[in-house]
Amino acid sequence: MRRLLDALYRGAAVGAALCMVGLLGMVLLSVLSRQFGFHVSGTDAYAGYLMAAAGFLALAHTLKKGEHIRVTLLLHALQGPARRALELWSLAAASLLSGLLAFYSCRLAWQSHAFNDISTGNDATPLWLPQLAMALGTVVFALAMLDELVLEWRGRRTTPANGEKEMLRNE
Structure pTM? Predict the structure, then answer.
């Protein structure tokens, strides 16, 4: 199961990286089209879709690598069972919120598909297509958050948050 989850997080990160490459392509195409006097419609919209997709698809991998920003002032002030209880409560609350985000992102993509909602720009893209990347990214993020909660509950969570990495090096 661990290998499957890690592969899922890496796959989402690869998807985010591919979106960033696509974003670069859209920006270069837009710049070059202006320089050579022709216009490719929709490049701005597709660049925005790819940027949003990259951000959402990278959420889980970023969490698992301990690179999300966390406010640990209160956490570091506590010791022992109180610290663990706060960590468990925080992860449970984050799991709930990420689950809600995933649910409503999927619902939005489904409704856009059901209502045949299209973008108002020149590209007239069915909106469920870019929203699908958001929904997928939030679902994988919710799984990663639940994974962190279960690992903490079982006492096997080892990935420190970004600020904690520096504190561990200094100690």
Answer: 0.86
